[in-house]
Specification:
Blueprint: H1 3-6, H2 9-18, H3 23-41, E1 44-47, H4 51-63, E2 75-79, H5 106-113, E3 117-122, H6 156-163, E4 169-173, H7 180-186, E5 189-192, E6 213-217, H8 220-230, H9 248-257, E7 265-269, H10 279-294, E8 298-302, H11 310-325, H12 346-357, H13 360-373, H14 378-400, E9 405-409, H15 425-430, H16 436-441, E10 445-452, E11 459-465, H17 471-489
Parallel strand pairs: 2-3, 2-4, 7-8, 7-9
Antiparallel strand pairs: 1-3, 4-6, 5-6, 5-10, 9-11, 10-11
Helix pairs in contact: 3-4, 8-9, 9-17, 11-13, 11-14
């Protein structure tokens, strides 16, 4: 394996700036890696045929002495939910097969402006509906740690690409855990920013009040570097915050070298007992808490009595918003069109198109959401779910009056086998039990690798949550724990992963 692809984004950026590596060399190394292993992984839906030209443009600008962004020349993978002008955007659905957008998503435009080199578009559950990337219309992505297992969802393609060294950085989206949960099962770092902290303009909407774009990386510092690029107000997004954000990379550096854990109060939710988690996941979580305590943190038990209703509320709010957002895929304006035989009406064409273009999970949620919004049921279902959402937000407010951050296992289990839960939607939905509350409340969350489960040897993540707008706090705490864990392991967790080479396990 090329040494270049083993570098973190921060390390690669330093070598690019020093002239030790060219952007073309870095991009070619990652393209070679994709060619070698993605036939097994299926992390990418499309590989950018303009990547080398973009890399050459950065090399030319650097040679001319232009002032470049610190990440200029570093390759980037992009979740296929984010529209791009030079590559197809399908959101993992047949109904958008081959769609070319007339504009870039804001986060993509900002990445290009910083000189990041788009490698391609990564696989995902259709319209981000799923927890395993098995619901992609183009086939599942596989976990680099075990090709028989899922890489998480909905952003399993981005997480798998980063974990398998196909890309040093990736963009994802998180509606109920779709950045953090894949990070948990692939040994990577995933961040869900504060709602409104990163523009959603150009992210194909699933549930507009829940969706948030964020970074997928191998280290906390790398996430901070990418977060710095994509954060900030966007007038195109009516939900975009006008805050002036601090440098998240600087916060990560502070956490890695300072004593930020001394006196830190870490909340542990008493309503999430160890019995609800795979033993190896619970053991890794407790080991991380012990490490935090030995380095000066105080672990405090807190109560969030309404978190247990989060999954139920989420699976009413999300389908309701999805049924509205996906109404535009109607065979008329863009996307697939299926015309039945005879003299079909517009309604016939629309019905045939949506039947052929949407997968089972998308249809399931559209039906559920439409029902929840229908006359006579709106208050009983959608209205009640919004009330529960308010109660969860109040739980967070009370908790953060007592503690600085909340810690949970990122997900209840390690990566399960492909096909194991595909016919059991309820079990699939419960996989996001610890991540969903952050989306309902709009608070930021980070998942970092906490080790390998002692019962199956697969990656496990620990999640930290902070008050809204306190993303920098997560970077400080995450980097501090990451440093302690890496010191105890002797190296990054991903150095212990079974490596794919030449397309073989």
């Amino acid at each position: 394996m090329s040494d270049i692809i083993r570098l973190t984004a921060a390390e690669l950026a330093e070598k690019l700036s020093a002239g030790e590596v060219s952007s073309r060399e870095a991009t070619q190394a990652h393209l070679d890696r994709i060619a070698a292993v993605d036939g097994d992984l299926h992390a990418f839906l499309h590989v950018n045929d303009g990547a080398l030209a973009a890399a050459d443009a950065i090399d030319t600008a650097r040679a001319a002495g232009e002032q470049l962004h610190p990440l200029a020349g570093v390759p980037l993978a992009i979740k296929d939910v984010l529209v791009t002008t030079d590559q197809p955007t399908t959101s993992g659905s047949k109904i958008l097969e081959g769609y070319m957008s007339p504009y870039d998503a804001t986060v993509v435009a900002r990445s290009r402006a910083a000189g990041l080199v788009p490698l391609g578009k990564t696989n995902m559950d259709e319209f981000a509906m799923g927890s395993s990337t098995e619901h992609s219309a183009y086939g599942p992505t596989r976990n680099p740690w075990d090709l028989d297992r899922i890489p998480g969802g909905s952003g399993g393609g981005s997480a798998a690409a980063v974990a398998a060294f196909e890309a040093p950085l990736a963009l994802g989206s998180d509606t109920g855990g779709s950045i953090r949960q894949p990070a948990h099962v692939t040994g990577t770092v995933g961040v869900k920013p504060t709602y409104g902290g990163v523009s959603r303009y150009g992210a194909i909407a699933l549930a507009s009040s829940l969706d948030q774009v964020g970074p997928v990386t191998r280290t906390v510092l790398d996430s901070g570097l990418l977060h710095d690029v994509i954060a900030g107000h966007d007038p195109h997004d009516s939900t975009s915050l006008t805050d002036a954000w601090p440098s998240f990379a600087d916060a990560a550096r502070e956490g890695a070298r300072g004593d930020v854990l001394k006196g830190l109060k870490v909340g542990v939710i008493k309503e999430l007992p160890d019995s609800g988690f795979q033993p190896g996941v619970a053991a890794s979580f407790r080991a991380s808490l012990d490490l935090l305590e030995r380095n000066g943190a105080e672990v405090v038990e807190i109560s969030t009595p309404h978190f247990e209703y989060g999954v139920a509320a989420y699976y009413l709010i999300l389908p309701a918003e999805a049924s509205s957002n996906l109404a535009k895929f109607d065979s008329v304006r863009f996307g697939l069109r299926v015309t039945p035989d005879g003299n079909p009406t517009v309604e016939d064409v629309m019905s045939a198109t949506r039947d052929a273009g949407f997968g089972d999970e998308v249809k399931r949620r559209i039906i559920l959401g439409t029902y929840a919004l229908s006359a006579g049921y709106y208050d009983a279902y959608y209205g009640s779910a919004q009330k529960v959402r308010t109660l969860i937000q109040q739980d967070f407010d009370r908790a953060f009056a007592e503690v600085d951050v909340i810690a949970t296992p990122t997900a209840p289990t390690t990566a399960f086998k492909i096909g194991e839960r595909i016919d059991d939607p309820l079990q699939m939905y419960l996989n996001d039990v610890t991540t969903i509350p952050a989306n309902l409340a709009g608070v930021p969350g980070i998942s970092i690798p906490s080790g390998l489960a002692d019962d199956d040897g697969l990656p496990v993540g620990i999640q930290f949550l902070a008050p809204a707008r306190e993303d920098a706090r997560l970077y400080r705490v995450g980097a501090a724990l990451e440093t302690l864990l890496v010191d105890s392991w002797g190296a990054s967790l991903l150095t212990r992963a079974p490596q794919l080479a030449g397309g073989n396990r």
